[in-house]
Amino acid sequence: THNLPPGLEYLNQLDQIIIHQQVELLEAILGTETSSKYEIKNHLGQRVFFAVEENGCLDRQLCSPLRPFTIRIADNAGREVIRVTRPLRCNSCCFPCFLQELEVQSPPGTIAGYVVQNWDPFLPKFTIQNQSKEDVLKIIGPYATCGCFQDVDFEVKALNEMTTIGKISKYWSGFVNNVFTNTANFGIQVPVDLDVRLKAVMIGACFLIDLMFFENSLDGL
């Protein structure tokens, strides 16, 4: 474990990670988009990290799910251990050369990996890359992400897209929560021996999937 990025030692023990978006009172009452805050927990519900989104007010109001952001993830001592950066890019199959790409650093300033959207006419598809931009894993979502009162699973697969090794799940959390807030609850399930850097990249993938497919308050019903 002495070779692990500082702060990620705890991820070395986990095969399940829960990401819970905290409810913002102003957003719930007025419908005003505010900076997102998240708690990242283990399977027992114990907080491991917390995360805060940073961007401009105009970015949140005008660009909404396409908005660029930096998400800083800190441990319980307040030390920043992961930084997730998303530039302003396209979210349409009509522009396949400018699709979504997200960079994950751990520790901040050192590349841990990337999440790259792949063009597909029917399914949400992403590639997980390591720090050298080498393809490592695939993430493939369902044709419909509305959920219809149930969880929505994005499968984590080997590069051949035949073998499933885990999943990222958007948990349905009830009608009231989905209608009046944009709060998200995600679960990540991966092999316990997966490189902790890739686990950090999976956390970044959660944030990207949340904004791309579940930003609107009625999504996930």
UniProtKB/TrEMBL annotation:
Pfam families: Scramblase. Its cofactor is Ca(2+). The keyword Calcium applies. One of its GO terms (molecular function) is phospholipid scramblase activity. The keyword Lipoprotein applies. Keywords: Calcium, Lipoprotein, Palmitate. One of its GO terms (cellular component) is plasma membrane. Belongs to the phospholipid scramblase family. May mediate accelerated ATP-independent bidirectional transbilayer migration of phospholipids upon binding calcium ions that results in a loss of phospholipid asymmetry in the plasma membrane. This is Phospholipid scramblase. It comes from Pomatostomus ruficeps (Chestnut-crowned babbler).
